[in-house]
Structures are given as C-alpha cells and as structure tokens.
Design a protein that fits this description.
Elements lengths: L1 H5 L2 H18 L6 H25 L1 H4 L17 H22 L3 H22 L6 H5 L1 H15 L10 H25 L1 H7 L4 H4 L2 H20 L7 H27 L5 H25 L4 H6 L2
Length: 302
C-alpha cells in the first residue's frame, strides 16, 4: 500500500478523466476502446512516476506539513532509494508502453516531457521559489490531453485532419483551471505551506488578492471551454455554458465573502472545481461518442 500511496492515486484519477474526452474528441463518433485502455495504463504509469519522484524531492517538506505528514517517505514507510528506483522504473515502463503497445512514440515523448517538467521545473525550481509555482508548474497536469491526442491521431487514416488546435484548447482549459483549484486548497492549508517555507500565493498575498485572482482564472477557464464549442455539438455547448456559469458564480461568492470579512470556506470551491472539470469533460465525452453534428457544421448550412 505504501508504494501505491507514492503514486498519489487521487491525483491520477483526475488526470485520466482529462485524457478520455480528449481521445474521444480526437476522432468524433468513434470509440477506439483498445487504444483508450492502453493509453490509460500508459498515462497512469507516467503520472505515477512523476508523483513518486515528486515525493522523493519533497520528502523534507512533507514531514512538516500536516496534510502530507502521513505520506510514505515522510513516515519512513519506504526508503528514499527504493522510491527513486520505483519512480524511474515506472517512467521507463510508461514510455515503452506508449511507444511499443500504443504505437505512439510522440505520446511517449510527451510523457517523458511531463515527468521531467513536473520533477525538475515545478518541484525542484518553481515550487519553493515563486508564488507563480502552480501557474507555470501546472502545465505538467495539462499534458495528458496531448498524450491522448497523439495516440489517436497517430492511428487516424491518412488524410484525416488531426485538429491539434482542439488539443491545445483542452490543454489551456486545464492550464487556467489549475490555479484557482490549487489556490482554493492552499487557502485552507495556508499555515502548512508557511511552516514548510513554500511560497504558495495565499502565504504571500492577502486573501482578497488571492480570491481576486481565483475569479480571474475561473473566467479564463470558462471562456477557454467556449473556444471548443464550434468543434462540438449542443450537449457540450450546454455543459460548457451551464457549468461555467455555476463555476464563475461560486468564485465570485468566495471573493465577495472575503471582501466583506465574513468566514469563508475555500475548500468548497476546491471540491466544486473538481466537479466542474469532470462535468464539462463528461459533456464533451458524451457529445463526441454520439458524434453529434458540430455547431460549426450546423451554422455553415445557413
């Protein structure tokens, strides 16, 4: 169980939720079940590698923070050397799995890039040095959509458009979603991060300033989902608008509560942000599986 805990299973679940709709949207109306399963396993191995290596680097601060003090390395349930080997083996297995079994060396390259960026750029450089850590470091969490898109497009018939712009939009949705999601959690555990010397935004900025930025990034996230509407059908459009309004209203409520000086519960927005992203991606998945006429196609008829 300690080795499973090293992989941060709950984090991986969220990453895989982002991967599936990308694969379905990459070839609308078709469900490549074999490729989906292969990609999910390969993506799990890659994410597990990155999370394990992250824990190796962060073992010192994990011991200080109450939220992380029960992690395997913090309580010495696994040795640092064993965890390092485990993480490296998972990373190598992920690349070979995607390259050989999913037959996409582009996806394998993306997974390597993800692991290296998360460990070296985010964990070793950004996390302990700047309050912008999750803004730029969050790019690692956006990579599953590129991995998934690469697997599907590498198997499309010759001449079928790959539409990489849609993968970039999905990447940006998660990119803009990550800061409000993480900052809401960091507001709840502000003292933990302060004790560990990690300059998360709520540690170095007033609650009013943090919630203002949460609102701005929430708007950016929702507007980004709108950019994909022309390439999808009415189910995704309704989901993007409906769930987007819900997300924006809740972000504004959090900011308004902080401005009034009343007690707020930022963890509620953190949980809501998870539900929001899942809901939007489920709407996209259903839309893509049904192969509905895209709205750009509908309007071109008039």
């Amino acid at each position: 169980m300690s080795y499973i805990a090293l992989t941060k299973p709950r984090v991986i679940e969220l990453l895989l939720v982002a991967a599936i709709p990308a694969m379905l949207q990459a070839d609308r109306g078709q469900v490549h079940l074999g490729l989906v399963l292969l990609t999910l396993v390969g993506g799990w191995l890659g994410a597990a590698s990155a999370n394990t290596l992250n824990m190796v680097v962060d073992a010192d601060i994990d011991k200080v923070m109450k939220r992380t003090e029960r992690r395997p390395l913090a309580r010495h349930a696994v040795t640092t050397r064993a965890a390092l080997i485990f993480g490296l083996v998972l990373g190598a297995a992920s690349m070979l799995w995607l390259g050989l079994l999913a037959q996409s060396w582009l996806a394998a390259f993306f997974i390597l890039l993800t692991i290296c960026f998360y460990v070296f750029v985010y964990t070793m450089i950004l996390k302990r040095r700047t309050a912008q850590n999750v803004v730029w470091g969050g790019a690692a969490g956006c990579m599953p959509v590129l991995v998934s898109w690469a697997v599907i497009t590498d198997h499309l018939p010759e001449g079928q458009p790959h539409n990489w712009w849609q993968a970039i939009v999905l990447f940006l949705i998660i990119f803009f979603w990550t800061p409000p999601h993480t900052w809401a959690l960091a507001m709840r555990y502000k003292e933990d991060y302060k004790a560990a010397g990690v300059p998360m935004l709520p540690v170095v900025m007033s609650a009013e300033g943090v919630t203002r930025r949460i609102t701005l990034y929430t708007w950016a996230t929702v507007l980004c989902t709108f950019a994909l509407i022309p390439a999808a059908g009415w189910i995704y459009a309704a989901g993007a608008v409906g769930f987007g309004v819900w997300f924006i209203v809740m972000a504004h409520r959090l900011e308004a509560g902080v401005r009034r000086g009343v007690e707020v519960k930022p963890l509620k927005l953190f949980i809501l942000s998870n539900n929001y992203l899942a809901a939007v991606f489920v709407a996209l998945s259903i839309d893509a599986v049904l192969g509905l006429e895209t709205l750009s196609g509908v309007f071109s008829l008039f």
